[in-house]
């Protein structure tokens, strides 16, 4: 594997981001915080912090591989819009 290919692969596994902000949705269209937490935990995350940030649901916690993560989700669709794992916290 070339250095460029390895670097590209590493970068793609470290961070996924389409935007720091979620699309603006009226609050009544948002998935409730309780339901969002349940669905996010069902994806294998353990949540230590859950908040609204820049119009997104944002969690801090650990993924199924026990890595520290910070992930933002669209509050209407629960689509992931930003992902960082522990290498960003060191």
Automatic annotation (TrEMBL):
UniProt keyword annotations, A-Z: Signal
Domain of life of the source: Bacteria
Native organism taxonomy: Bacteria, Pseudomonadati, Pseudomonadota, Betaproteobacteria, Neisseriales
Signal peptide bounds: 1-17
Protein name in the entry: PepSY domain-containing protein
Residue ranges of domain PepSY in the record: 2-82
């Amino acid at each position: 594997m070339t250095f460029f290919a390895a670097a590209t692969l590493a970068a793609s596994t470290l961070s996924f981001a389409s935007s720091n902000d979620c699309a603006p949705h009226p609050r009544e269209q948002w998935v409730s915080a309780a339901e969002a937490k349940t669905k996010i935990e069902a994806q294998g995350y353990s949540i230590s912090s859950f908040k609204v940030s820049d119009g997104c649901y944002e969690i801090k916690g650990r993924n199924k591989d026990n890595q520290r993560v910070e992930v933002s989700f669209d509050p209407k669709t629960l689509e992931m819009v930003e992902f960082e794992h522990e290498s960003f916290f060191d």
